[in-house]
Every structure is written in structure tokens, then in C-alpha cells.
Amino acid sequence: MPDTGVNDAFVAFERVQKSYDGETLVVKDLNLSLPKGEFLTMLGPSGSGKTTCLMMLAGFETATHGEIKLDGVSINNIPPHKRGIGMVFQNYALFPHMTVAENLSFPLEVRKIGKSEREQKVKRALDMVEMGAFGGRRPAQLSGGQQQRIALARALVFEPELVLMDEPLGALDKQLREKMQFEITSLAHQLGITTVYVTHDQTEALTMSDRVAVFNDGRIQQLAPPDELYEAPQNSFVAQFIGENNTLEGVVKEISGDRCTVQLDGGEMIDARPVNVSKVGDRTRVSIRPERVELDPQLGDESHTLKATVKEFIYMGDIFRTRLSVAGNDEFVIKTRNRPDQRRLRPGEEITIGWLPEDCRALDAD
Ligand SMILES: Nc1ncnc2c1ncn2[C@@H]1O[C@H](COP(=O)(O)OP(=O)(O)OP(=O)(O)O)[C@@H](O)[C@H]1O
Ligand SMILES: [Mg+2]
């Protein structure tokens, strides 16, 4: 995985590996750098190594190999409390015996900041998360979302340049989560804070981040801005993990420039963009987003069409979601917009679908 922005990196992982048991590497070869002010999300399934990476950056775990740098300086031997990093973790509870204001004051006391300055900073941090009136309450007297906001204020109160957040919104309901997502990103951008955010929720990652690092099996599978991850996944894992995706399996029959021809397992030939296939004869999984599939296509010369059988038609209000059987795949989904002239399909109906070859990506069969 190529490194980016090495020269102006604020945070850098260089060839970092981690093993807990001395045998298996749970982080395999991490090269990742963030410029100052970036909001980067580590996204990936459970056990893919996200928290481990964050813990190494925070200083609660040590890397087995490689180096972690902050502002160009190796922090491998600097203890957590001297790294000046703000942290919000899902279960990083507030101190229950302290009031909200005391909770916020604590990191400032640790840093030997005087009383009047402490009071001023606490007030500002509380106002920032719109909790100015709650300084005297104890955590137990707050809702989950309010506690989360206090945890956020506590991470920001000593004005860290770097904040780490590990699934900070996991416990909240959908509505509150969306509100907090917005609050976190706008605060981070407003204060120019560099943020490393961990989640396994892809929508959260796509909506909040400048860039997303997709993790699987201890490796970054792709590191890109949200739109690029969705539109141009580099391998099957990313294509499947980010958004809804249709796949058809086959064998590469020809490659020429930015086109290849794939013979699907049912015998049909289709054109695709070769993304993660290297030679004729490779098995491949071609991937097409549901919204890029046309019904009764009139896409011109370059299009392809395939016969499909309707399995299920779901009216969803703004869109129609139709499940089809296509070239042996019974889970092929298309989405069409609800317009007065849009056809509503019936199960059993035989139809024709098509797409532009550039919207169809030939990826690894993994
Ligand atoms: N303290 C530990 N001792 C031993 N193994 C650990 C320890 N912490 C994590 N692991 C293992 O390391 C791997 C990566 O775990 P990690 O917590 O980094 O995953 P994650 O991506 O944060 O997952 P989740 O989404 O479930 O939080 C897992 O296989 C896990 O079992
Ligand atoms: Mg984790």
C-alpha cells in the first residue's frame, strides 16, 4: 500500500506490525500517514485490527515492529499521558463520582493548569458541545447522548492537536448518532484537530471522513476519500464492504487497455473495466452497483445486456428495489427511481438489463 503525504505527515505509521501472542500478526504492515487537520476513519469488520492501531497510537500498546511518528518524531518510547492526545472510547466512562465540570477539569489539573484558566477552558468546552448548563450534574443524571457529548468535551478540553475516537457513538440511537456525527466533524474541522476515528459502520465512515482506511485481516485494503471508495473499489472486499454491490463470477477471456471481456460461469460474455485482474484465464468477480444497472437499456453501442428474471419487487417510496436472477445470481439487485413512467415489475417477468462497461469492475475472485 503506497504511503501518501509523507513529507507533511502529522501522524505516521511506518511498517507497523503487531502481535499479541508472538505468533499471529493482527496488524501486518501498516503504512499510513495523515496531514494535520485530516479526519481519517479506520473502517473494517470486527477483529480486523482497528482498535489495536488506535491503542498503539495512543501508547497503550506497543508496536511489535515499525515506527509511529507524531509531527515527525518517533513516539514509540513516549508514555500515553505525554503524547498529548485526546481520546473518546465507547466504554471510556466519565468518572461517576465527579460532576461534569470536574470531569472536564481533571485532564487540565493533570497538566498543572491554574484554577482560573481551568474554569475558563471547561466553560468553553461545555459551550462547544452545547452543555453549558450541565456543569454541576453527575454523569448518572445525563442521557446517553449527553454523556457522550461530555466525553467529547473532555477529550477536547486541553486542546489536543490529535484526537482518537473508537466507536464513540456505538451506544446511541440512530437519530442521536446522526446528530453527534455532524457535531464531531464540525467541531474537528472548526478547531483544526487531526482525528483518527474508528467504526465498523460504513455509513458513518462515508459521511464523516476526509479519507477512509478500509481494514481487513490486519491490512489496509484501500485508503481513499469516501466517493472514491464507493465508485472505484480496488478489490472485491472493498466493493462488498462499502455499499450495496452486485457480483457475477467468471473468467477473463481478453484484456486490452481499459477493457476486458469476461465469460460468466453461465456462458454469457460481458465487457468490464479490468481493475484487479492480471491476465487472461484469471477467475474474476465483476462488480456493478445497483443504481448503475439500467432496465430495458438504451445505452448505445458500448452497453451490454443480459436477460434477467424478476424475483421480487419492493416499493420503497422514493425508489423501487428489484431483486433479479441474472447469470446464475439470484441476489442481483437493481434500484430504479420512482417516476410516473417507471415500470413496476412482477415476479416471474423476463426482462433485459444492461450497464456501461466502465461501471462494471473486474475484481479478484478472492
Ligand atoms: N489484548 C489482546 N490480547 C490478545 N489478542 C488481542 C488483544 N486485543 C485484540 N486482540 C486480537 O487482535 C485482533 C484485532 O483486534 P482489534 O481489537 O484490534 O479489532 P477491531 O478491528 O477493533 O475489532 P472490533 O470492530 O470488534 O472492535 C483480534 O483477533 C483480537 O482478538
Ligand atoms: Mg475495536
UniProtKB/TrEMBL annotation:
<dbReference type="InterPro" id="IPR003439">
    <property type="entry name" value="ABC_transporter-like_ATP-bd"/>
</dbReference>
<protein>
    <recommendedName>
        <fullName>Spermidine/putrescine import ATP-binding protein PotA</fullName>
        <ecNumber>7.6.2.11</ecNumber>
    </recommendedName>
</protein>
<keyword id="KW-0813">Transport</keyword>
<dbReference type="Pfam" id="PF08402">
    <property type="entry name" value="TOBE_2"/>
</dbReference>
<keyword id="KW-0472">Membrane</keyword>
<dbReference type="GO" id="GO:0005524">
    <property type="term" value="F:ATP binding"/>
</dbReference>
<dbReference type="GO" id="GO:0043190">
    <property type="term" value="C:ATP-binding cassette (ABC) transporter complex"/>
</dbReference>
<comment type="similarity">
    <text>Belongs to the ABC transporter superfamily. Spermidine/putrescine importer (TC 3.A.1.11.1) family.</text>
</comment>
<keyword id="KW-0547">Nucleotide-binding</keyword>
<dbReference type="GO" id="GO:0016887">
    <property type="term" value="F:ATP hydrolysis activity"/>
</dbReference>
<dbReference type="InterPro" id="IPR005893">
    <property type="entry name" value="PotA-like"/>
</dbReference>
<keyword id="KW-1278">Translocase</keyword>
<dbReference type="InterPro" id="IPR027417">
    <property type="entry name" value="P-loop_NTPase"/>
</dbReference>
<comment type="subunit">
    <text>The complex is composed of two ATP-binding proteins (PotA), two transmembrane proteins (PotB and PotC) and a solute-binding protein (PotD).</text>
</comment>
<keyword id="KW-1003">Cell membrane</keyword>
<dbReference type="Pfam" id="PF00005">
    <property type="entry name" value="ABC_tran"/>
</dbReference>
<dbReference type="InterPro" id="IPR050093">
    <property type="entry name" value="ABC_SmlMolc_Importer"/>
</dbReference>
<dbReference type="GO" id="GO:0015417">
    <property type="term" value="F:ABC-type polyamine transporter activity"/>
</dbReference>
<dbReference type="InterPro" id="IPR013611">
    <property type="entry name" value="Transp-assoc_OB_typ2"/>
</dbReference>
<keyword id="KW-0067">ATP-binding</keyword>
<feature type="domain" description="ABC transporter">
    <location>
        <begin position="11"/>
        <end position="242"/>
    </location>
</feature>
<dbReference type="InterPro" id="IPR003593">
    <property type="entry name" value="AAA+_ATPase"/>
</dbReference>
<dbReference type="InterPro" id="IPR008995">
    <property type="entry name" value="Mo/tungstate-bd_C_term_dom"/>
</dbReference>
<dbReference type="InterPro" id="IPR017871">
    <property type="entry name" value="ABC_transporter-like_CS"/>
</dbReference>
<comment type="function">
    <text>Part of the ABC transporter complex PotABCD involved in spermidine/putrescine import. Responsible for energy coupling to the transport system.</text>
</comment>
